[in-house]
Specification:
324 residues, BirA Bifunctional Protein, domain 2, SH3 type barrels, five-stranded antiparallel sheet, elongated, binds ligand BTX
Length: 324
């Protein structure tokens, strides 16, 4: 409700102070009894308050589950996350977001689920998304751009993920073109960017981001164990998923605005600074065959440039990359 939103906002802006019952009552324009009732409701959702006589209330813990309010509480963005669609369990957040976008959801709407039954990777692959352990999220964007620029948005997302991981955990992550984020060579994040478009313009981008946060190695099927990792495995402690989401949305919004104002060039520089494959010999497995060569960089369209032994340059639009 509107009151609940105001109440959480008030606590957000006074994170280190106590808020007195009277101050809250004035702010919300209701009685102190009503204030007490609203606080009781938040308690039922898993918020924990400290109440000190003559001082008032302070939030000391937010709910364990990544419920929408926990993401909202402390979110510092203007657009991304302005609407949060939260589900306990879905097939795929991409599917939900596509439907919402078709129904006219505004830019910045996000879909977050605790679990995905059939999480999607690229080319019909599966994304393993066990319950309560990861960030399974789709972000709806509506950039006024031609469709051929959509791949750049995947690269923006990868930069935002690396920056968010670094800020929240202190871990160093790297990008493998086009859409993998790795820590110590193992996949911690996958990004799947899909779009709805007319012939000459993007109608909506559905940016799917899957971050492994609190999984243990044994939570993965055996075949994935050698290639996957999670933030908790690398950091050796549990990480707050809500904090990852908040920081990620903040970084993503900053980069997205930079991109809309100044084009892809500044993103490209950031992206290349985080990329592992650039300057290395790689094997690119494309649908039409495998090309081996040195990764030179990415173009301003976000396409990978590869130079083979004969010195011929290839533009790679879509491939799986192995480091040689
Ligand atoms: P991808 O095709 O690059 O990677 C998929 C491959 O990664 C799988 O074939 C498997 O080998 C491996 N894999 C599967 N699950 C995991 C995992 N949890 N951790 C590490 N490796 C894994 C990457 O596709 C794009 C993934 C996007 C996922 C997000 S989650 C929110 C949104 N909803 C949805 O259905 N997909 C996106």
């Amino acid at each position: 409700s509107e009151i609940r939103k105001k109440l959480l906002n008030a606590f957000t802006t006074h994170q280190d102070d106590y808020l007195s019952g009277q101050a809250i009552a004035d702010l919300l324009g209701c009685s102190r009894t009503a204030v007490w009732k609203h606080i009781e409701n938040l308690r039922k959702e898993g918020f924990e308050f400290e109440a000190v006589r003559r001082k008032g209330y302070r939030i000391v813990a937010t709910p364990k589950k990544v419920i929408a309010d926990e993401i909202r509480y402390g979110l510092k963005t203007n657009i991304l996350g302005s609407h949060i669609h939260y589900e306990e369990s879905v097939d795929s957040t991409q599917k939900v977001a596509h439907q919402l976008a078709t129904d006219g959801a505004c830019e910045g709407t996000i879909v977050v689920a605790e679990e995905q039954i059939s999480g999607r990777g690229r080319m019909d692959r599966k994304w393993i998304s066990p319950k309560y352990t990861g960030v399974w999220m789709s972000v709806i964007l509506r950039p006024q751009l031609p469709p051929h620029r959509a791949p750049q948005l995947t690269l923006i997302a990868a930069v935002a993920v690396v920056q968010a991981i670094e800020e929240v955990t202190g871990l160093t992550a790297e990008i493998k073109w086009p859409n993998d984020v790795l820590i110590n060579g193992k996949k911690v994040t996958g990004i799947l960017t899909e779009m709805q478009a007319d012939a000459d313009r993007i109608v909506s981008i559905i940016m799917g981001i899957g971050i492994n946060v609190n999984q243990k190695l044994e939570d993965y099927p055996e075949e994935i164990q050698p290639i996957a990792t999670s933030l908790a495995i690398e950091k050796k402690e549990e990480i707050s998923r809500a904090q990852i989401i908040q920081t990620l949305l903040f970084k993503l919004e900053k980069l997205y605005q930079l991109y809309l104002q100044n084009g892809f060039q500044p993103i490209r520089i950031l992206w290349e600074s985080y990329a592992i494959s650039i300057g290395k010999n790689i094997k690119a497995r494309t649908l039409s065959g495998t090309i081996v060569g040195k990764a030179i960089g990415i173009t301003d369209e976000g396409i990978l440039l590869l130079e083979d032994e004969a010195g011929v340059r290839h533009q790679i639009y879509s491939a799986d990359i192995d480091l040689e």
